[in-house]
Amino acid sequence: MTDSLTDDTAPPPATVLCVDDEPNILSALRRLFRPEGYRVLVAESGAAGLAILEQEKVDLVISDMRMPEMDGARFLEHVRERWPGTLRLLLTGYSDVSSILAAINRGEIYRYITKPWDDTDILLVVRHALERHALEQEKERLEVLTARQNEELKTLNQSLEAKVEIRTEELRNSRDTILETNKKLKSNFITTIKILSSMIEMRGGNLAGHSRRVADLARRLAVKLGLDANATQEVFIAALLHDIGKIGFTDDLLATPVNLLAGDMLGVFRKHPLRAEQLLMPLDDLQGVASLLRAQMERFDGAGFPDGVAGPLIPLGARILALASDYDNLQIGALIQRRVLAPDAKQIIYDAVGKRYDPNVVAAFRALMDGDKIEKIKDLATMAKYLAPGMTLSRDLVSPEGLMLLSADHVLDERLIQQVQDFENKNEVRLNIWVWPVPVKEA
What we know:
Keywords: Coiled coil, Phosphoprotein. Helices cover 55% and strands 8% of the residues. The protein has 443 residues and is an alpha/beta fold. The protein has a five-stranded parallel sheet with strand order 2-1-3-4-5, with helices on both faces. A two-stranded antiparallel sheet has the order 6-9. The protein starts with a helix and ends in an 8-residue tail after the last strand.
């Protein structure tokens, strides 16, 4: 099978044409080349040689110089003109210099071979000539192939560019469609949220417009505090839905100011942040909003509910929501038993800084209401004997040896404060204690 494949794919043998008017020389050349695998043709004159060339594909011509009617130089000149791809060799004597020059100039011969020749030398000359000829043909073939492939590649690239442009346009149209669809979805989403927020307000009374006012103030506070677009949107949605946990409240409970609630009514009221969170839990996109609603009734000093967390442990969005909601509730009579004018509501907010409200949020609120410049609340250094329950560590509490005793954002209680004081007394050291400022409570 291998031999058959080799025979089928092997190149055809080279064809050599020998031209000489002496039959014995032609016979000698035939005997010399045939064992080398060449196909050998012979002609006894230049005219006969030209006739063979018209009928056969010849790779190499060996011509004698001295022949009647048409000498070798003229014959090879005809070969060069009509079959320039055929290699040309000249047989001549040592003394025939003028003939050699004529053949070189007119026939552009590859080599000349002197008589009498050496068999080994002439075989090497012919072999090298044919190998070079084969390399030149392969080079030409590859150049043609490369040019054709380059043209095909150029055409393919042009086709690909057109296809890419078409596909790009399709993707651009798809993107525009998706963006428009997303825009509509977002618009519908906000509309749905507003519908949900209005459900509690449909109960009547003084609740109409409450959620929208709280949402607007909460959004402005979030922007003032430098929250990014996503966080601001989350605060806005949480504000729209902040009363959703009250959906099951009785009319009496809804109409009773918070400061007058007691007993079972107070217990039901305190569950509304948890109910709000539970209502939103099935919605993956509103998990962040749900966490803000859970923490909306927490106090900055840790006295809120349902978890009793304090300071920075309360999500910032919930701290914003607490202030925005209370500000409007004060004015509609939902927080205390009388309606409060806006200036008085602001003052109540200011008076509760550090207790119910985050000082930074109050500063942003003051900037919005009164045009004051926001000043970032800084932490304060203090000593152990001045610590009070509800204070929050602003930095890690570290011993002189570098051992961390309490982490930042830890809310202090009486037990922890006593432990800190005992540590100082026992080790005769003074700790560097940093806390968030809390205003001194009124007597």
